TrEMBL record:
The keyword Iron does not apply. This is Thioredoxin. Pfam families: DUF4369, Thioredoxin_8. PANTHER family: THIOL:DISULFIDE INTERCHANGE PROTEIN DSBE. The keyword Disulfide bond applies. Transmembrane segments: none annotated. The lineage of its organism: Bacteria, Pseudomonadati, Bacteroidota, Sphingobacteriia, Sphingobacteriales.
Amino acid sequence: MRLIYLNLLLFIASCGPTTAPKDSVYIMGNIKNLSAGTVYLLNSERKAIDSVYAKDGKFSFSLQRDPENDFYTLSHIDDNGMKSIFQFPTDRTFRGGPLQVDFFMADDTVKLGGSLKVFHSRQIKMADNIQLVYPDEPLSAGKQTRAMYSVNWDLNKRITDSEFVNVQQQVKEYPYSIYLLKQISENRANFSVRQLQLLLSLFNDDMKQRKETVAIKESISNRQVSSGKIVSLELKFVDGGVKRIIDRNSKVNILVFWASWCGPCLQEIPALKELYKKYKNEDNVHWVSVSLDRNELAWKKSLEENNMPWEQFIVPSEKINFLYDILELDGSIPAVLFVNNQGKIINKLIGYDKENIKNYDKIITENLAKN
């Protein structure tokens, strides 16, 4: 009798839905035209963490949830050596069609079906044995992937009040979304303190322990007293010492953020030199360049090659996030900031444009004229 009862339980369990155990991610594929070959599961850094041989278009992965990896993607190499890099269609639009993205999120269960289509792009040149592909059926996934594929915004610029209404609505609709929280954290320099505080209040309680929330709260704290921190900010000087980058006796402090590997930054240097000549005898103008290089040898070599005749600093890796917070930067370079002697940011221009030099000159002139 006990044996019959046990068999009945096993039969009932086998008839239940295929779902991943708690704290696991289960990824299944049943793709009609997938050639025989190896499917690779890649993490957010595109490193292969598992692989399986697929035959008749079927494959599956089962893995423990990793708090450090919220995003996954796939690639495939068939028996003839053709490599396919997967893209996934979303509900967002781009140039009149569905936007393709590289990743899906670590939901409990993710299912791929349909057939693969080759994605052709004039902007992306691929080797003969590599192709971009996407399934012609939407992924069947959980709420994290659905939220990621549904949001439609651009956070790579300063968020105006009218644009903030859209961001706020997205968070209200998906208060559990890890993707939304990550995007806001990574682009926190583009939000005001008030906007960040309001957005944090809209997320679910279980999101408030994540490292992204901690980073946003630290940013808010740093920026609320940023002027004093900017004035006292010390960085590594080119001679190896440490000194403040702001001159309290100068009305205008010009902070040029760059790196030796940044082509547009190097392109702007000759024009900056010409502008420096115009104001080099002006006591109320103080120039510094701040490098984001991680390789000091590359930084110093570039300094020798470009011979910028003003003070040169480099940011230690342990200070980079703090610096981004108090100066409201997101890491985009070239970036030129104008700061007064009280540590207040007067103006900020991001990116390279030939017309920027005229704007720099105008900002300097206008602020020198102020009492």
